[in-house]
């Protein structure tokens, strides 16, 4: 999987971050939206986003939403409700804003296959042996993306960045 040291993820595209330092680069805790707020705003986005000088929206709760569903229902929900909201966000801001999903345990839940660059979500108990085809559902396994976000050379990945989901 490609890696990026570029800060473009802070201003454009969609990211899934699990590193607290990375989250703190773009927002303060009171600026984080709940997943419910995010889904309710789809199609009626505010003119100004709450974080990073109006360039960024950070959303928490995607992991909890996925954990409450069976793998089959999570697959459908991620591909319908979540992807539709992401596409609505991208269209409204014409790719000139950043949508970031805060996943505190994402480094243990999102796995990538080095041979294929596919990204999967490890389901929670009682479905802990199941993997959700996260990348296929959200970005159709586009080979150039996602990229691992690095905050500095040699650091562990802080998250995943995708410039534009189609």
Fold and architecture overview:
This protein has 166 residues and is of the alpha/beta class. The chain contains 6 helices and 10 strands, in the order E-E-H-E-H-E-H-H-E-H-E-E-E-H-E-E. It has one domain (3-162). It has a 7-stranded mixed β-sheet with strand order 1-9-10-2-5-4-3, with helices on both faces. Strands 6-7-8 form a 3-stranded antiparallel β-sheet. The chain starts with a strand and ends with a strand.
Short structural summary:
With 166 residues, this protein is α/β, with parallel strands linked by helices.
Q: Walk across the major sheet and give the strand order.
A: 1-9-10-2-5-4-3
Count every helix, treating DSSP H or I runs of 4 or more residues as helices: 6
Distance between the termini: 19 Å
Low-confidence stretches: none
β-sheet strand percentage:
15-25%
Report the radius of gyration as a whole number of Å: 15 Å
Estimate the global geometry from the Cα principal axes.
globular
Residues in helices, as a percent range: 25-40%
Number of strands: 10
Number of domains: 1
Class from secondary-structure proportions: alpha/beta
SSE order, as H and E?
EEHEHEHHEHEEEHEE
Q: How would a textbook summarize the main sheet?
A: 7 strands, mixed
State mean pLDDT (0 to 100 scale).
Answer: 94
Q: What attributes characterize this protein structure?
A:
166 residues; alpha/beta; seven-stranded mixed sheet; three-stranded antiparallel sheet; 6 helices; 21% strand; globular
């Amino acid at each position: 999987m490609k890696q990026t040291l570029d800060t473009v993820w802070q201003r454009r595209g969609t990211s899934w971050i699990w590193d607290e330092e990375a989250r703190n680069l773009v927002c303060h805790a009171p600026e984080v939206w709940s997943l419910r707020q995010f889904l309710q705003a789809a199609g009626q986005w505010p003119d100004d986003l709450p974080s990073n000088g109006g360039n960024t929206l950070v959303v928490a709760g995607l992991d909890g939403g996925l954990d409450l569903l069976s793998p089959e229902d999570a697959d459908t929900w991620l591909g319908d409700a979540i992807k539709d909201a992401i596409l609505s966000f991208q269209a409204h801001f014409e790719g000139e804003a950043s949508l970031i999903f805060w996943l505190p345990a994402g480094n243990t839940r999102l796995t990538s296959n080095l041979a294929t660059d596919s990204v999967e979500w490890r389901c929670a108990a009682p479905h802990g042996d199941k993997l959700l085809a996260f990348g296929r559902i959200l970005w159709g396994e586009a080979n150039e993306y996602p990229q691992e976000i690095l905050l500095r050379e040699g650091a562990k990945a802080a998250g995943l960045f995708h410039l534009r989901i189609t």
